[in-house]
């Protein structure tokens, strides 16, 4: 739908009932602002993609170069894959991608520090023996080193039994 | 678990009782949790997902939780859809692939999804406006699981989730509201704009991107980091009474100015539902919404809110087909739906009712 005042795409849709008759308004962002109507703030979820784009553009060169090469040693996810898919690969990614991720988290939530309940058992995510063993297991299978894979599987079982 | 039984029962959250239950259908809290020792679901292999499923199931057993586990892998599309209509699993889990499942509590007030976007999505739902009760139940459930599981957690960022929009508390606090008068007078858009400004999201009955069929709206928090669970619950709880009072006001104005007109609309809706021989899902939702409001305004006095709440769910496509015991095309569903509604409206009347 196009804006009723100009030919741009309308982004603000309003309708109100005045004395029983309904009036509809379809305006683009700039025309809505001119008319004194602020377009609704997009919810943070929808804004996330835009925020990532913005951050990447803002830090071209310096950050993008570094981030473009960043990948998580434990799950293989790259920052660019996160940027396109919006999902992280493993708990360690929060550390692996910290320079790109923390500004994003801060913008999306308006905060950067957890407040609230916490579990009693805490292992820093990058130090989780299970996650590391599983990463090595995946590599071993990819290399078709089934002997190592079998050993790693035994170690994982042992880890599991110890807990 | 026998899924067919779901078509003869209804969840606790549809009881139609509890505080403000004329407008608040139910209160729900969800927690996103992940195991520290595994990649997130989207990056886990099927073998790893099987392992995650095993670890979580064993934790639920050890915690002595009275939950019934249902693997989604063995379920056909109709059964999976039934669980979605019932609000026990998300569409994402239903449509996902690989090892995944859901553990369901008695009376359907709890469910724990395994291998959704996060390894665990824990959910508790109660009828009416009762977030403090829901929080108490889910917090206890989470504590009991945490004793058995090793959650991914980092002191700065809190519970780590596959999507950074859930990081921190991992909490989603939601209230499902029935707002026919605000929707009818279009005042609802003003409410939405105000809610967006304070970072609350509004969705339809079945989540993101769904139309608000039947004038049901889910309001939930977006922020999950930097505030405690209790603060986030309070932020949402504080605005709900205002919305409730706007809706009540809009209903009173409507009935004050156009009583005959409103009474006519409500009675006609009830009449169509009682007599139709074919009816679409969307018309059903629309008419049930009028009838539900009519009961609350005292314009209909021989029908229970609970029956209407159940009809909203039991007339959805998968429920209908399970009730009929066969798969139906759209036209056949419309006929089956009308028949089912006629039967239920005859049994649902107060004067016919003996015991619960
Ligand atoms: Zn314009
Ligand atoms: Zn990773």
Tag the structure with descriptive keywords.
heterodimer, A: 163 residues, mainly alpha, 3 domains, two-stranded antiparallel sheet, 8 helices, 51% helix, elongated, B: 356 residues, alpha+beta, Creatine Kinase, Chain A, domain 2, 2 domains, 8-stranded antiparallel sheet, two-stranded antiparallel ribbon, 46% helix, globular, disordered C terminus, binds zinc ion
Given the structure, what is the number of helices of chain B? 12
**How many E-type strands of chain B?**
10
Q: At the fourth CATH level, what is the homologous superfamily of the largest domain in chain B?
A: Glutamine synthetase/guanido kinase, catalytic domain
Strand-residue fraction of chain B?
A: 5-15%
Average pLDDT across residues of chain B?
Answer: 91
CATH architecture of the largest domain in chain B: 2-Layer Sandwich
The count of domains of chain B is 2
Helix content of chain A: 40-55%
The percentage of residues in β strands of chain A lies in 5-15%
Please mark out the parts of chain A with pLDDT under 50 across 5 or more consecutive residues, or reply none: 39-46, 56-62
**Rg on CA atoms of chain B, Å:** 21 Å
């Amino acid at each position: 739908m196009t804006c009723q005042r100009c030919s741009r795409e309308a982004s603000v849709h309003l309708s109100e009932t005045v004395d029983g008759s309904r009036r509809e308004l379809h305006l683009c962002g700039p025309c809505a602002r001119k008319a004194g109507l602020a377009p609704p703030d997009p919810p943070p979820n929808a804004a996330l993609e835009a925020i990532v784009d913005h951050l990447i553009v803002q830090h071209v060169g310096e950050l993008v170069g570094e981030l473009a090469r960043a990948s998580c040693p434990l799950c293989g996810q790259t920052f660019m894959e996160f940027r396109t898919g919006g999902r992280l690969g493993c708990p360690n990614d929060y550390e692996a991608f910290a320079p790109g991720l923390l500004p994003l988290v801060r913008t999306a939530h308006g905060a950067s520090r957890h407040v609230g309940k916490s579990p009693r058992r805490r292992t820093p995510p990058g130090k989780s023996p299970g996650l590391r063993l599983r990463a090595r297991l995946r590599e071993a299978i990819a290399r078709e080193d089934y002997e190592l894979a079998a050993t790693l599987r035994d170690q994982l079982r042992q880890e599991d039994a110890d807990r | 678990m026998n899924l067919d039984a779901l078509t003869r029962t209804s969840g606790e959250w549809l009881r139609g009782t509890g505080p403000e239950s004329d407008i608040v259908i139910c209160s729900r809290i969800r927690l996103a949790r992940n195991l520290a020792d595994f990649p997130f679901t989207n990056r886990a292999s099927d073998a790893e997902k099987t392992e995650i499923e095993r670890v979580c199931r064993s934790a639920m057993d050890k915690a002595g939780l009275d939950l019934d586990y249902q693997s989604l892998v063995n379920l056909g599309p109709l059964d999976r859809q039934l669980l979605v209509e019932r609000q026990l699993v998300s569409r994402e889990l239903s449509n996902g692939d690989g090892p995944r499942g859901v553990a369901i509590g008695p009376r359907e007030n709890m469910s724990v999804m395994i291998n959704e976007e996060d390894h665990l999505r824990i959910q508790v739902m109660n009828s009416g406006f009762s977030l403090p009760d829901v929080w108490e139940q889910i917090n206890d459930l989470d504590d009991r699981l945490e004793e058995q599981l090793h959650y991914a957690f980092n002191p700065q960022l809190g519970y780590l989730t596959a999507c950074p929009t859930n990081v921190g508390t991992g909490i989603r606090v939601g209230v499902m509201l029935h707002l026919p008068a605000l929707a009818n007078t279009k005042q609802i858009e003003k409410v939405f704009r105000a809610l967006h400004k304070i970072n609350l999201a509004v969705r339809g009955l079945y989540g993101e991107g769904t139309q608000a069929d039947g004038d049901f709206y889910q309001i939930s928090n977006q922020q999950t980091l930097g505030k405690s669970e209790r603060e986030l619950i309070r932020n949402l709880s504080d605005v709900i009474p205002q919305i409730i009072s706007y809706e009540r006001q809009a209903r009173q104005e409507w009935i004050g100015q156009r009583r005959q007109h409103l009474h006519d609309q409500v009675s006609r809706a009830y009449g169509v539902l009682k007599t139709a021989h074919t009816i679409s899902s969307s018309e059903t939702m629309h008419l049930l919404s009028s009838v539900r409001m009519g009961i609350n305004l005292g314009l209909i006095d021989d029908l229970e809110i609970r029956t209407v709440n159940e009809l909203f769910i039991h007339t959805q496509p998968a429920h209908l087909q399970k009730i009929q015991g066969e798969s139906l095309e759209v036209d056949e569903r419309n006929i089956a739906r009308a028949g089912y509604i006629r039967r239920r409206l005859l049994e649902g009347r107060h004067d016919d009712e003996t015991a619960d």
